[in-house]
Design goal:
105 residues; mainly alpha; three-stranded mixed β-sheet
């Protein structure tokens, strides 16, 4: 349980575990424009989880990556069969659409 869990008698939810895992991964990688396998898996789970908070989380992370790209940083993006680089918005949006077709950012 998180530090507030004992106070409220709540166990971490699937979404909170997902966010925690992706946030720890993204602390280092997201700022550099890197989507590593762990972050990618967190994005996939958020995309498939039927909740607005997960969907909003994914959209916010993808929007952050787009902002990083607009600052001139090429993105290094995980693919299930390797990795790819996106140096343009169209390349990044194609990657996002391929893996997260319902995302809106």
């Amino acid at each position: 349980m998180g530090w507030l869990g004992p106070l409220f008698g709540k166990k971490p939810t699937r979404v909170s575990k997902l966010r925690s895992r992706a946030v720890h991964s993204s602390d280092e990688g997201l700022c550099k424009g890197v989507v590593d396998p762990e972050m990618f898996e967190g994005f996939r789970e958020a995309h498939s989880y039927d909740a607005a908070s997960s969907f909003n989380y994914l959209n916010a992370r993808l929007a952050t990556l787009l902002q990083i790209l607009h600052r001139g940083v090429s993105l290094q993006l995980h693919e299930p069969d390797g990795a790819t680089t996106a140096g343009s918005e169209s390349e990044f949006r194609a990657w996002a659409k391929k893996h997260f077709p319902n995302a809106e950012f």
